[in-house]
Amino acid sequence: MALLNWNDNLSVRIPSIDEQHKVLINMINSLQDAMSSGDSRAVLGDIFDGLLKYTDQHFTYEEALFAEHGYPETEDHTREHKAFVSKVTDLHKQFTGSSNFMIGVDVMKFLTDWLVNHIQGVDAKYSDHLLSKGVR
């Protein structure tokens, strides 16, 4: 069962970014599914690692659009990206560095809450600006 489902409330109305957000949601759901089915630490680690890498790619994409189109809140938005990457990197290190650390409900709640709040709050702010510049 999916932890998080895509819906129109998560759309920033920019298809290229919405598609990336859907991938992130699917990765979080895959991580949840692997946890629920008792998959090995290796499987969990691979999914967690992939989520971290894809998030970095997604943030790089957004930040390149901000630079190209003069988004006025780039600095604040980028700061949020860096804080998230730092937190997830720390969680990943805890997971890979300890045989006792499992990806728990609190980590999944953090990932889903952050993603939903980030998309609906901070990402929604850039939508009109980038759309007005022709970004799709």
Automatic annotation (TrEMBL):
Residues 16-126 form the Hemerythrin-like domain. Coiled coil: none annotated. Keywords: Iron, Metal-binding, Oxygen transport, Transport. It comes from the Bacteria. One of its GO terms (molecular function) is metal ion binding. SUPFAM superfamilies: Hemerythrin-like. Gene3D superfamilies: Hemerythrin-like (1.20.120.50). It holds the Pfam family Hemerythrin. Belongs to the hemerythrin family. This is Hemerythrin-like domain-containing protein. It comes from Candidatus Lambdaproteobacteria bacterium RIFOXYD2_FULL_50_16.
